[in-house]
Every structure is written in structure tokens, then in C-alpha cells.
Amino acid sequence: MKKELKIDKRTKAYKKQQKLNLQLQTTAKRIMENSTYGALDKALRYNEGKRNWSLVNWKSLEPMVEVLEYGAKKYTTIKNGVTISGADNWKKGLDKKQILDSMMRHLTSLIDGEDIDSESNLKHTGHLFCNLMFYNYFNK
Asked: How many Å apart are CA 34 and CA 11, to the nearest integer?
């Protein structure tokens, strides 16, 4: 008799757990059906027509950053004992023809098989990236 009671209790507990599982599954299904994003709703985002910056391979732009860092040091000046950073020197204005000339020098060096600029010891591609950025900056 005692064994039968134990079996009955286990059976009741098992049936109760099964019922709860079924309720959870039903609730989850209802949420999935009534939600655009599923059980784990996310905030709405309206990104249509906006730039998808995740398409850019940032590591490939590293040579450009190295050239910008080189230029920041190269064009840093000291006036009346005050150090003036050269970081944004290029933003003061550059002649478009000079930008294109610089691009062509670096491009022809690449075409001739030279990967590294002799003055900066940095990649010509980094100089090209910079010049393209400068050109686009001034041609908004």
C-alpha cells in the first residue's frame, strides 16, 4: 500500500509538471505569434536608409590611421612656447589639385612596385586613403 502511495504521488507530481510545461510552451508560442521579434522582444530601430558601417573592414584602414598619426607629429609646431597639435592641420584647408597630385605620386609608386613611402616609412596605401579622405572632406 505504501508503495502505491509513493507511485501515486510521483505520478501526480509528474502530471503537474507536464501540465506546467504545456502551459509554458503554449504561452511561448502565443508570444512568438503575437510579436514581431519573438519571445525576446528588442527595441524598435528605424535604420532603413542609414549607412551600414558594419560593412567596413576597420583593420584595412589602419595604414591610413598610421599616416594620420605621422602627420599629426610632423605638423605639430611650437609658437611662443606653446605646442600646437598638428592632428587637424589638414582640416585648415588643402588645395584639391595638390591632394590629387599627392594621390598620383603614391599611386604611381604602388604601380611601380614600391609599397613603402621613403619619407614616412609607411604604406603608400595609407597615404592614398588619407588623400582620398581629404579630397572627400573638401568636396562635401
From this structure: 34
